[in-house]
Every structure is written in structure tokens, then in C-alpha cells.
Amino acid sequence: MADGSPFSTPSPVNRNGAPRQDASRPDALRHDWTREDVQALLDLPFPELLYRAQTAHRAHFDPTEVQISTLLSIKTGGCPEDCAYCPQSSRHEQSVKAERLMAVDRVLIEAKRAKDAGAARFCMGAAWRSPKDHDLETVCAMIEGVKGLGLETCVTLGMLDTRQAHRLRDAGLDYYNHNIDTSPEYYGEIISTRTWQDRLDTLENVRDAGINVCCGGIVGMGEGEGDRAGMIATLASMPKHPESVPINLLVRVAGTPLSDAEDVDPIDFVRIIAAARITMPASHVRLAAGRENMNDETQTLCFLAGANSIFYGERLLTTPNPAATRDRKLLDSLGMRTTVVSDA
Ligand code: SAM
Ligand code: DTB
Ligand code: SF4
After folding, report:
1. Is 88 helix (H, G, I), strand (E, B) or coil?
2. What is the per-residue pLDDT across 64-109, written as a single tens digit (0 to 9) for each?
3. pTM for the full model?
4. From CA 6, how far away is CA 289, in angstroms rounded?
5. What digits encode the pLDDT tens for the residues 147-162?
6. Which residues contact 247 (CB under 8 A, 6 or more apart)?
């Protein structure tokens, strides 16, 4: 019987080989995405891929709305890990100057500034392999203070054990960011001082403590297309999808081993955003680092492919991000708005 006849059983894949969405349950979340499934999405004709991504996006979100988060590096540089992309590793020939953990009152001044500029979430990053107990107490005081301003909180502090995850939960932490960065197969090419399993263990500790998970990765580190599919499949087959999925375009920093990494084709980057949106339809997909080197047209395609979150403000952790005025102008020109923050 010809495909498409009302009497035929629908094939589990469409004519391009991509898995079909179950039309009777358009909102159902799948947790069994394989690398091949994701590759089939990446291989779709671009208009088909974007249509699928927009359909998934609209089933869960208002496509004109963008969540905005502001980043602050609360402990910069001097990190003992050797992540090849990162300017904060002390193992690279050149790295940013190591600083001490910021004082709580200085962090709160920055958080208030971010709130006044319209951020909904304040994300604090520390260049640690894992936090020491007395530093964790200071971070907990930051979390309590930032929440008191009416902002959502996110921290990224490296590896956590169960006890540390519970301590952060008790301080009221909303999100923990811990990226898988790439595929399991490529991980060892990028980082040698910890394992893929270390990463998964921390994610499990965070999840079990009841904290929302922010987990994504980086595109542009010399990985193959299969690694990109493997990264998205890993995220999308977690028992619960990360609530936030940051997709970073590598920021190439002089002195890091990846300073000369090849350019990423912008359309390939948009395809990754679309695959994240289709496979994790109810999650916020963040167009994260790398926007400073992206034109407005590519960013617009990312929004059309389902990105609904950005980092907002002149700095990421140690590198520049587009000026707030440029972002406002872009969002205004697209008729898009940012998620409103309620007052504390
Ligand atoms: N030290 C902690 C850790 O790695 O878990 C937290 C801070 S670390 C800077 C947070 C994330 O920033 C990394 O996992 C990586 O995904 C991202 N990142 C770091 N350097 C980057 C770069 N040059 N370009 C894009 N993303 C980067
Ligand atoms: C994420 O996925 N990207 C952010 C945040 N989580 C912590 C960090 C981007 C860092 C880019 C390089 C820098 O500014 O140092
Ligand atoms: Fe350290 Fe995090 Fe940078 Fe890796 S990504 S070197 S763990 S700060």
C-alpha cells in the first residue's frame, strides 16, 4: 500500500529517514534518542528541520519570548583542570589572571544591576575543579542574597558530591550548570583531568538533590558531525531532560589549545539548535557563548530554530558578549520580548 494511505501503518521514520513525532501525542517527551536519530534530524532538508523545530517550540512555548540570564565570574582563573577551550585553565601557556572568590556584597551589587537591566536569572561561575566547603558557604550566602532580589539563581562550580548538592539546594539554588560539552567519544580529546563519568555523576547528584539542571555543550572544538549528534542524543536521553540547555559556539581565546579551531558553518550551528529544540521540546534552549562573533541574521535563524534564552550583558565569564543595546535592538526589530521578572 502506498505510503500516506489512511489504511497503511505509518512508518516510524519519514521519507527523509528522521523519526516521526507521534501525531496523537505531540507533547510527549522522548528519552530514547540515539545518535542515529539525531543525525537523521541534522540531515533533514533545512526547511523541514526548521518546520519541525518550530512546531515543537510552539507546543511548549510562546515563540516570541526569550528568557535572559546574566553571567558573573565570581572566581576567575587559576583552574587546575585542562579543558582545551577554557581561558581560565592554569595549564595553558596563557590564561587569565587568577583572582580570589568575590565578596558577597560585590556580587549583590552586580546582581542588582543585572536585575535592573531586565535579567530573569543570575548565573555565577567559579573556575574550580570542585568547591571547598568554606567557599561553598560563601556561595550559599550569594545565592540567598540574589534570590532576595527576586532573581532566579544558577551557579557553576565544577564537580559536586551529594552533600554539596544538598547544601546548595538548602540555600535555595534554582539551577546548577554543568555541561557535558561534547560527545562521550570526543570528551578525552578536550579534557584529560576528569572523565565523562565524573560529569555524569555530578549531574546525577544535582538532579537527586532536586535542583534544576542546566546542561549543554560547545560546538566548534574540531568535533565531527557525529560528535554533535552524540552530544544532543546524550542530553535528550537523560531520564529527565535538562531544564536549560546552553549551546555554546566556541569562543576562541589566544593561548588556549583551541585558539585556531576551524570556523563553524552558521547553518550547521542553527541545525544543532533545531535538533536540541526537537529532542528536548519543553526545555529552554540557550543560544549561549559565541554571539559576539555571530551576525544578527544567524542569531535570528537560531531563534526561528527554537532558541529561547540568551546570556545578556557585556560579559560572559571572561570574554565579551554583545552589548545590551544591540540585543534590545535585535529583539525589538524581530518583535520579540524578554520574559518578565516578578518583583521580590
Ligand atoms: N569550572 C566549572 C566547570 O567547568 O564545570 C564551571 C565554569 S566553566 C567556565 C562553564 C562552562 O563554560 C564550560 O563547561 C564550557 O561549556 C563553557 N565554556 C568555557 N570556555 C568556553 C569557551 N571558550 N567557549 C565556549 N564555551 C566555553
Ligand atoms: C555555559 O554553557 N556557558 C557559559 C555558562 N554556561 C557558565 C560560560 C561561557 C564562557 C565563555 C568563555 C568565557 O567567557 O570565559
Ligand atoms: Fe576550569 Fe571550568 Fe575552565 Fe574547565 S571549563 S578549565 S573546569 S573553569
Report:
1. coil
2. 999 999 999 999 999 999 999 999 999 998 778 999 999 999 999 9
3. 0.93
4. 46
5. 999 999 999 999 999 9
6. 216, 217, 219, 269, 272, 273, 276, 285, 286, 287, 288, 307
Cα(1) to centroid(ligand 2), Å: 52
Cα-based torsion angle of the residue sequence 107, 108, 109, 114 in order, rounded to the nearest 10 degrees? 90
179 lines ligand 2 (CB under 6 A): yes
Residues taking part in catalysis: 79, 83, 86, 123, 154, 214, 286
Tell me if 56 sits within 8 A of 82, measured CB to CB: no
The pLDDT-based confidence of 341 (bands split at 50, 70, 90) is: low
Among positive and negative, which fits the CA dihedral 246, 249, 254, 255? positive
CB 21 within 8 A of CB 60: no
Q: How far is CA 340 from the centre of its chain?
A: 20
Task: Give the single-character DSSP code of 303.
Answer: H
Contact 62, 55 (CB under 8 A): no
**Pairwise CA distance, residues 116 & 97, whole Å:** 29
